[in-house]
Amino acid sequence: MQLNIAVLGGDGIGPEVVAQSIKCLRSVEETFGHSFTFRKELVGAAAIKATGDPLPERTLQTCKDSDAILFGAIGSPEFDSDPKAKVWPEQGLLRLRKELGLFANIRPVKVFPTLVKQSPLAKKIVQHTDLVIYRELSGGIYYGHKSINEDNNSATDTCTYTESEISRITHLAFKAAKARRKKLTLVDKANVLETSRLWRRTVYTIAESYPEVTLDSLFIDNAAVQMILNPSQFDVILTDIMFGDILSDQGSVIAGSIGLLPSASVGADYAMFEPIHGSYPDAKDKNIANPVASILSTAMLLQHFKMQEESDAVVAAVLKSFSKKIVTPDIMGSSKYGTNYVGDFIADNIME
Amino acid sequence: MQLNIAVLGGDGIGPEVVAQSIKCLRSVEETFGHSFTFRKELVGAAAIKATGDPLPERTLQTCKDSDAILFGAIGSPEFDSDPKAKVWPEQGLLRLRKELGLFANIRPVKVFPTLVKQSPLAKKIVQHTDLVIYRELSGGIYYGHKSINEDNNSATDTCTYTESEISRITHLAFKAAKARRKKLTLVDKANVLETSRLWRRTVYTIAESYPEVTLDSLFIDNAAVQMILNPSQFDVILTDIMFGDILSDQGSVIAGSIGLLPSASVGADYAMFEPIHGSYPDAKDKNIANPVASILSTAMLLQHFKMQEESDAVVAAVLKSFSKKIVTPDIMGSSKYGTNYVGDFIADNIME
Ligand SMILES: CC(C)[C@H](C(=O)O)[C@@H](O)C(=O)O
Ligand SMILES: CC(C)[C@H](C(=O)O)[C@@H](O)C(=O)O
Predict the structure, then answer these.
(1) CATH topology of domain B109-255
(2) Which ligand is closest in space to the CA of residue B141?
């Protein structure tokens, strides 16, 4: 197979971890006889520095001309501490998702048996966790009208959802549940928010077309509790952009390190793959960042293009790194292996 | 001291747990020679059933005529599963908070040494946790304009904050931090939301008046992670109504049971005290609900009226119940003690 892949390393540890993913995809290319081309472009703080724009036109065009996008991470402390800035890195990611129509952010949370003891939660609580979060990614409060009113010193964010925005991701989530353990949990705040009530009405109506799937719903405050107390109760979680942001980061802790979890963002025309972790500026260039989340994102990429065997080979190589304890220090404090070494090990172990 | 206390048991386990709190306050009254009167009123699903209104005029009036309000819990599954309902229980609580001007919801999260092993998190992670969340309670997306657009089947919630709404709770939070470990953490999503950026600007400006307090800020997704990985890093957390809802429920898990944590909601004129847990309809009338969260809310009530010794006596009695293992089954699965027995034990042990 021939694939053009846009590579947007972004900020902080982003470029280092995607570099390991490229190694792994090169290894897949050789082993399985595919042809991948990679085109690197700027995004985020790096792009602001070079061009003034967190998503330069050229970056967007390259993404549109590619079959898939490999994304690193975004965000930089100099912007976080300046709430008066007019431009900041995250705008690049938000605009990119919107321009590409990526409406579904798919975030699997799985506990790897060899890493169970890394989790801050008790083994009996986490060991059977295997859930996937379907987070809406192109609507809600992230993309609603925003304003500042200088008169009374107020600010406003608007959260709007249309039935069709809810519908399209809901169908994806039901299909995923049907192919898994047949349970879907809608997370919302329907006791307070009008948008949540629309989600509830829409999702319960669509549920009638998926009689084999059991649907239930939880308020977000309770879901955040259940995610810690009993994550294995979940199969597929469906939620909006804001709640999904919080719940999925929380889920990452369960797995033992936020450095482990991949994600896919898909729409009708494009697909982007990125770790769920942030840019961790403190770890930048120290060769300590965990490349696994990014590498597992390439496994999602391969699966997306129906290269199941190839995807399995990547996952198997990652599991081998765990069992051989070739892991970064976030997984094992005493580890002397760095980002590069772990990346090389995994890439070298991708075989048919 | 003479206090008129409105008692709004509400739904589910609410009435059972506040009944234990009344016992404890009666015991304080006798022991310390005060005079408390209690007036019970309906709210929530119970009030809808009786009057059609989740906050009947008479309930509101009684609250306004009282010095303090003891609140149980609210919510009922028959309403949750009907997103088309026009009236639902939570509206009663939301209106009550608004009508009384309760703008600050204060939620302490403390791990009791005797209960450390109840926490699903490792002892070394949770043992030194002692934080308090200052959650804004009368603005933001809960109270913004809401609408449904029948044409395109969309729904909207509006999140607005004014500088003065942010200011008043920020001052309370800084004062609390000053009297504690002198650290304040603002939790927001300033990389996405305009309201968060206003929070950041406002809070950083106010910080200049509290040079002894160290201020930092975290994005909510990261805060949800840090709350699990390292809750003892927090002293005072300041956040908006929506993020505060999620973070404080999450915090309750750390303490070992959501049945342990109290809260105070205060404004310029009124103060209300309630457990942070919900109405747990499944536990209703089974004599298994943990009364401690409600009882510790009375300790916050007493402290609010500067009855420090009385408040300490309530807390001491609660701690005694822990060390004697007079606890409900949520704390110790094998426990045969019910809500009433635990309530009696604590009330009996309130002494000078
Ligand atoms: C960087 C930020 C805007 C982003 C989000 O909130 O969507 C990130 O937290 C994520 O989850 O992908
Ligand atoms: C019942 C509900 C409306 C309420 C809230 O979200 O404020 C509750 O969860 C709380 O935290 O007090």
Answers:
(1) Isopropylmalate Dehydrogenase (3.40.718)
(2) 2
